[in-house]
Amino acid sequence: MDIAMVGLGKMGVNMTKRLLEGGHRIVAYDLNEGAVRSAEEAGAAGAHSLEEVVAKLVAPRVVWVMVPAGEPTESTVSALAEQMEPGDIIVDGGNSNYKESVRRSSRLLDQGIHFVDVGTSGGVWGLTEGYSMMVGGDVTAVERLRPILETLAPAKDRGWGHVGPSGAGHFVKMIHNGIEYGLMQAYAEGFELMSNKGEFGLDLHQIAEIWREGSVVRSWLLDLTARALAENPTLEGIAAYVPDSGEGRWTVIEAIEMGCSIPVITAALERRFRSRAEAPLSDKLLAAMRRQFGGHAVKPEE
Length: 302
Prior knowledge:
Helices cover 53% and strands 13% of the residues. The chain is α/β, with parallel strands linked by helices and 302 residues long.
């Protein structure tokens, strides 16, 4: 099946390779000409503009967009829509806000163009393990994409599914990432507590390996934790600075708007914010208040 991949970041490149291995014909485009040349070396047909992308595909076309959320996705989808025809499909496989996906789908529907949002998980391991894909959109469009989705998934009948109408795919992926925040935070706090129990001399990598087999807390995240501790037992050289890519924030905002309590995910997001504060004013103020009401000593800044 012919498909264009627009956006050749790490995930886009790996998805392109997996599709090529599955026998699909790929037209590859990125603003980075070096990335396009790499895709050509892997067997894809390179394109050097969005107009060329559309021209190299046989109608009805499928263009899979893998660019950052927000303006990059907005401008790419809008530019493609100007070149494409009724019956064509635009897939957003990035991490867009689901509300934007609902809006884009409605706008493109007026032009007769299908919009399918695919929340995609798998990261750098997707090339070998396959991708987990949460698909939102029209049933007919999703069925046309089935050969592509089955190739990208861990197996034809596992790891992907049509979860609902346009926007549903990115909504489910948003919740997926919020849950991921909570799981990661729980593992991190548990290992920190064990690390602080100095008198036991616990080997954190050993414990992670024990938990990987038969334990109710075993998971792929735990597998990766064990791998990280094997490579760097003291995590030397890694700053305690944790970014967030947006989905966790959107999850918490959605919960507030719906009046739905999600304290674990909210706390995990707030902990990420905290990790990026070099000298939190709130902690300084706590120390100052203790000195004011109790005469307690404060520790001077170094």
